[in-house]
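chain below, 293 aa
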Amino acid sequence: MELAELTLGSGDAEMEAGVETELAALSRDYERERTALLFSGPYDESDAILSISAGAGGTEATDWAEMLLRMYLRWAERHRCTTEIMDRLEGEAAGIKSATISIRGRRAYGWLRAERGVHRLVRISPYDAQKRRQTTFALVEVLPQVDDAVEVGEIRDDDLRVDTYRSSGAGGQHVNKTDSAVRITHLPTGIVVQSQNERSQHQNRELAMTVLRARLLERKIAEREAELAAIRGEHVEAGWGNQIRSYVLHPYQMVKDHRTEHETSDTTGVLDGELDRFMLAELERVVTGGESR
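prediction:
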């Protein structure tokens, strides 16, 4: 500040350039530290498990779910995260009914927790011979991936019902001829998880247990938040909730987040994984108690 005051009216171009350089460096440091504050949650540094489920709407809905899957895989690639498809259920004609993917990378859960909720697509359906505009929905769930049993406590074998069945997905003769797919029901909570993407039953069981631990942790977090909300007198609504974001491809191009009002007309970029601005706006809204930047 003293250097800037000395520079005012001095006409010293070299000193002015030095002030501008220092200001730019300070601005970068400030933005970096400010962004770091958005990732201060207990699990923000964890890897993430992201699930996508198609809503009602037949082929249009399953196609939208697959578009979202591609979007998040591209986002992960941009952030140099590694991904693994843990479970994938194909749609009857196109797309996917559901998919669960593991995303491993720095602050994966911290970033992706901003994506939880219902995503709405508006476009001219490529599956409608009359070329009518269609609206469809998909649900995105994001869980912190925990490998440490301390986080969720011991999971007893007596509390699990394990069913095996033949995979219904693509994968060649082996997948279709052996009972390699695994479905695990956690009896005390009723949580059901499944995995059918791997070739062996053992691998699918391990992946399903990873998802189960994440869902038990999510339940634990939700119960804690509900208790705090009850103390504060807040209303906690379970279920899908309202749509968090709309992707409009017709009659105009617009992606708009309904929580933060952040929007862009670059629908191609967003669907190709350019989501950081949307995520940061939502994380900041949460941290600041509802006020977006």
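The first strand starts at residue 47 and ends at 54. The two ends are 26 Å apart (CA to CA).
thats it, cya
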